[in-house]
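User: Hi! I'm working on a homework problem where we have to compare a predicted structure to a textbook description. Could you give me the structure for the chain below?
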Amino acid sequence: MLRVSNRVLGLGFVIAGIGLAGCGAPGRPVPVVSYSTPAVPQSSTVTHEYNVTAVDAEGKPLTGADVAIKLTSKGAPDKEVKCVTDSTGRCEVTSIEVKRDPAYTYVTSYASTAAAVANKSGYYTAKSVEFINDSTKKSNSRDIKLRLIQPLDYLDANLKNSATDKELRGRVLRFLEVIKLQSLLNDGEVMLGGIGTSEFKGKKYLRVRVNSTTVYNSLRLDKYAIGKQLYDETIRKLLNPLNDHIAAPKAYFGYDIVVYGYTKNLTEKYATPTKIEYRFLLPESAVRRYKEKDISGQALLDAGVQLIDDERVEFKLQ
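Assistant: Happy to help. Predicted structure tokens:
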């Protein structure tokens, strides 16, 4: 008869008392076999390297940018490194020694994070998102790219190089400074090359293109409802700085504000958002009267023209 008994000891176990009754000599010692899981060294470390590169609006290497990098890893003090980008736009390789995360018993994990900020005279500050590097056993490296933008990068080629629109160009740059300093567009961003002039029905407009950063749920809002939300969340926020810093009745008739909105079925994880162009053409005189509280927001819309994907529509705010 085969008799087996088990005893659990820590991470291993012992099999004891194995014998064959009637087939072996009585009193023979019983063999004991022990199994255990080897411990992973807790003091082992790996090296995480972060390669930081600064580029301009066109993706070209930017030299002379001041970069500050903050590195963090569990069980180690934060590490801060400063450097200046070279002719290739790169900083010296930044590294940190990472200890094995003791919170994981059966999985080997070495985790670190990096966040970088770059500054250069004449450019807006560029910040990276917090970059997470989580490896299992080997040392490795990650690349962080910082894109620095100049105010002039927001102007289209015609306005940037126009000799006749020099005064208007200065007004636009002041408008951009207000937008950036006050962070007015939390749900959108002025597009690079998105500010210039346009013409509609024989009248000249100052055009501003904005990209919405919100994806709306197509199951709850149709394109008209989205347009009204974009008017409230984006257009209204632009009217004050436009009226205060760019108003120039002799230079153009009004503002041509183009907002690109996005919609999709949010219940479908891999659905591709549909892009919709909303265009608000608003007379400068009506914007001024609206800001002086002489007319309502609806009256402002009624004084202008609204287009969805180049089709004329009428928005009713109520």
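For your comparison, note the following. Residues 5-35 form one domain. The CA atoms of residues 30 and 133 lie 52 Å apart. Good luck with the assignment!
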